[in-house]
Specification:
This is Fic/DOC family protein. It holds the Pfam family Fic. One of its GO terms (molecular function) is ATP binding. InterPro entries: Fido, Fido-like_dom_sf, Fido_containing. It is a single chain. The longest helix is centred in the first third of the chain and has 22 residues. The chain has one domain: Fic-like fold, CATH 1.10.3290. 31% of the residues are buried. It has 10 helices and no strands.
Length: 241
């Protein structure tokens, strides 16, 4: 299941040393695509090029302050995630809250980095998230799973499960989707893979596959989605390195 991906990863590794200029260009492209698509999935209306200019510090007319902050905040959360990998830090609830705090900074400061105190309904989904009083225990169970059963899985499957489990708990009032995609990519990067981009065009399929994973415990379709997107990113590296 993971053989083709791991062969491509090994092929890329064999091309070292990489051109630092090319690596920087690929990284900037992925950061832009990731930020644009992850926010667009949640309803942000900035186009790819508008996202690019916002990241360059330019304000786009006709767009809300919230939409601008979503772009800047997501970029900052990616940079924070990269620092976690660079510093070889362990995954903790504190880290997850910090990522979420960056996502909602200046948008919903009251809820940034804090578990929700009310029930949420995920529109269109059959899955029902746990009641607020259960979240602390659910998150502790998630971290326990991560350091035990999760470590026995192939890194790609483990990263996929991190996303599935976390977004199923839906611990925050808002920003769960963006945080879950950051956590997924954080785990991929830790394992030496590049990040994936779940594209806004695939939003419906993405939501349906997630709901299937939560209601049937069949995670195969979601893992396959991650594999397909990872294949796309690896092909990008192979094309330019």
């Amino acid at each position: 299941m993971f053989k083709e991906i791991d062969e491509k990863k090994a092929l890329i590794e064999s091309k070292r040393p990489f051109s630092q200029h090319t690596l920087k260009s690929i990284r900037e492209k992925l950061l832009l695509d990731w930020t644009h698509n992850s926010n667009a999935i949640e309803g942000n209306t900035l186009t790819l090029m508008e996202t690019k200019v916002v990241l360059e510090g330019i304000t786009v007319g006709g767009k809300t302050l919230k939409e601008h902050l979503e772009i800047i905040n997501h970029r900052d959360a990616i940079l924070y995630s990269e620092d976690i990998v660079k510093n070889k830090e362990e995954l903790t609830e504190w880290q997850i809250k910090n990522i979420h705090r960056l996502i909602l900074k200046g948008i919903e400061d009251k809820y940034a980095g804090s578990y929700r105190d009310g029930q949420v309904i995920i529109a269109g989904a059959e899955h029902i998230s746990p009641e607020p009083f259960l979240i602390k225990n659910e998150m502790e169970g998630f971290i326990n799973w991560y350091y035990n059963e999760g470590q026995k899985l192939h890194p790609i499957e483990m990263a996929s499960m991190v996303h599935i489990i976390f977004v199923g708990i839906h611990p925050f009032i808002d920003g769960n989707g963006r945080t879950s995609r950051l956590l997924l990519n954080l785990e991929l990067i830790k394992a030496g893979y590049p990040p994936i981009i779940i594209r806004k065009e695939n939003r419906l399929e993405y939501y349906n596959i997630l709901d299937k994973a939560h209601t049937t415990k069949n995670n195969k379709d979601f893992v396959n989605l991650v594999l397909a997107e990872l294949n796309t990113t690896l092909d990008l590296y192979l094309k330019y390195l």
